[in-house]
Inverse folding.
């Protein structure tokens, strides 16, 4: 039977199916990131963003498709993480705006809405690059308009869209040379294809291969557990386990040999750390939700089985105090701050780096960075808490800039987003800030400061590849200078010192070393001794950043 019109309820089911299909394949999308660094998170960001949109849709299922599309747009907007998540939110924001007054739509109207979404997304990106998710969305929308002229049935119409999206995805390496060199298609484009495949499967009433609802089942169970426990909390001080702890463990073969995984045994052993425990696992990972008093012990326990990913820890005592108006929080004061003239928000990962930012003037630090990009809503929450007339945001990661800019657009506050792409850039900018100057004057000073700092990073490769003619093997250490891989080595110290040699010139005066959470004092001493021996006239500063994934972050000025 032909489907000649699309109402809100059917569209809601399409969105949920698309979100689930993307969630099931998020790791595939992550693996397509060009750089072989351990923070390839396009799939994670798109998944979290789409899941946020789908959850909002679930709360607003109705016949009117315009209202459902508006709910999707709102959920995506607030949940958008990373550039890929922001672009996805803009695609459906434009679509929602185009059909906001429609109770149902035809193929022609839906095609026009897809085109409107593409137009909105292109406008949101300062310098659109072809060969990305934008291209896939544009080509699919163009095909939709063409097919809608002759096809009124949504099933063959959506089949054509999916087919064209896949063809466009396969063309992305021809448009972006780096994709061709590495031998992959665009990760964001692949994520969008998964969403569209979900749309089509729902229209046809078909199941998708490897379909999993792990993200939704966990989210729904977590919500239920929170609700159930909230009913039993009489006072903040009655909360026995104060930290809502969520994380995933990506299994590692070597660790599983020492600690074979059994979901039942894992669940039983975790239960001693707290309550409200939920465990969901498959062959590759296990996802955990628990209320605990010592979240660090829980994470350490989980680490026996593999790598920790998607970690989130929330202070429930603080949350509860805010809800009931209890201003006598037992852990930290929640007295509202007096309104300040300026507030500076920095994004960083690693307690040491967060402390550094606070020590040089940051009003608030959002936990985030590699592998954990904060959402638009996270940034807006920080803006509200800072309570200042003028806000400056330092994203310190190129994949957070768009979410920060989107937060600035949504907020009624006067917000300036300084496009810092690295922690050293953020620190240099913050040190140049002058509270006695205007926002425009500070913008100029801080932008100038960014130009004078060079950033180096040392991390490890997650797969074999070749980039810019450099052959990289899995687990090699890589030296990255201002976003470009310039050195690889089996030895961490060799990779680090070679990176320093390639960054420093005769005009440089200061080198700042920020070392990661797993770096020993001996390794830090080896690096600093090398610099002091070979660059006698350069001042060296050393800080314990406690950051994950990146062994060293190096600033040269």
């Amino acid at each position: 039977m032909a489907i000649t019109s699309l109402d809100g309820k059917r569209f809601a089911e399409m969105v949920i199916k698309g979100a689930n299909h993307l969630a099931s394949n998020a790791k595939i999308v992550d693996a397509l990131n060009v750089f072989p660094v351990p923070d390839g998170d396009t799939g994670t960001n798109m998944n979290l963003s789409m899941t946020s949109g789908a959850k909002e849709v679930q709360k607003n299922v109705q016949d009117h498709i315009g209202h459902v599309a508006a709910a999707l747009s709102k959920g995506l907007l607030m949940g958008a993480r990373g550039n890929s998540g922001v672009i996805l939110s803009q695609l459906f924001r434009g679509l929602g705006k185009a059909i906001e007054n429609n109770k149902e739509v035809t193929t022609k109207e839906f095609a026009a809405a897809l085109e409107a979404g593409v137009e909105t997304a292109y406008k949101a990106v300062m310098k659109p690059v072809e060969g990305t998710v934008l291209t896939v969305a544009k080509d699919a929308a163009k095909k939709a308009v063409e097919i809608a002229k002759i096809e009124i049935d949504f099933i063959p119409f959506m089949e054509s869209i999916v087919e064209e999206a896949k063809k466009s995805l396969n063309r992305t390496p021809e448009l972006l040379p780096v994709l061709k060199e590495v031998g992959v298609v665009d990760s964001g484009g692949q994520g969008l294809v998964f969403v569209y495949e979900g749309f089509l499967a729902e229209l046809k009433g078909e199941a998708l291969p490897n379909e999993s609802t792990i993200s939704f089942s966990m989210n729904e169970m977590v919500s239920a557990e929170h609700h159930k426990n909230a009913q039993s909390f009489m006072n903040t001080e009655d909360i026995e386990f104060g930290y809502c702890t969520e994380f995933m463990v990506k299994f590692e073969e070597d660790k599983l040999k020492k600690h074979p995984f059994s979901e039942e045994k894992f669940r039983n052993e975790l239960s001693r750390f707290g309550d409200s425990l939920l465990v969901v696992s498959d062959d590759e990972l296990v996802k955990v939700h628990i209320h605990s008093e010592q979240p660090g012990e829980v994470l350490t326990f989980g680490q026996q089985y593999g790598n920790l990913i998607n970690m989130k820890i929330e202070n429930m005592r603080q949350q509860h105090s805010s809800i009931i108006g209890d201003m006598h929080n037992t852990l930290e004061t929640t007295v509202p701050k007096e309104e300040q003239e300026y507030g500076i928000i920095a994004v960083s990962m690693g307690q040491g780096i967060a402390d550094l930012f606070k020590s040089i003037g940051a009003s608030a630090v959002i936990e985030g960075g590699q592998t954990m990009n904060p959402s638009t809503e996270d940034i807006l929450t920080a803006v509200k808490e800072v309570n200042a007339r003028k806000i400056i945001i330092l994203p310190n990661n190129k994949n957070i800039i768009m979410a920060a800019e989107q937060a600035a657009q949504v907020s009624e506050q006067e917000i300036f987003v300084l496009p810092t792409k690295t922690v050293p850039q953020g620190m240099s900018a913050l040190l140049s800030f002058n509270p006695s100057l205007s926002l425009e004057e500070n913008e100029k000073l801080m932008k100038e400061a960014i130009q004078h700092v060079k950033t180096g990073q040392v991390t490890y490769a997650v797969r074999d590849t070749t980039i810019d003619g450099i052959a990289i093997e899995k687990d090699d250490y890589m030296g990255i200078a201002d976003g470009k891989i310039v050195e690889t080595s089996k030895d961490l110290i060799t990779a680090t010192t070679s990176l320093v040699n390639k960054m420093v010139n005769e005009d440089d005066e200061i080198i700042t070393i920020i070392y990661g959470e797993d770096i020993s004092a001996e390794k830090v001493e080896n690096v600093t001794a090398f610099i002091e021996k070979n660059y006698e006239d350069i001042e060296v500063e050393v800080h314990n950043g406690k950051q994950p994934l990146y062994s060293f972050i190096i600033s040269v000025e």
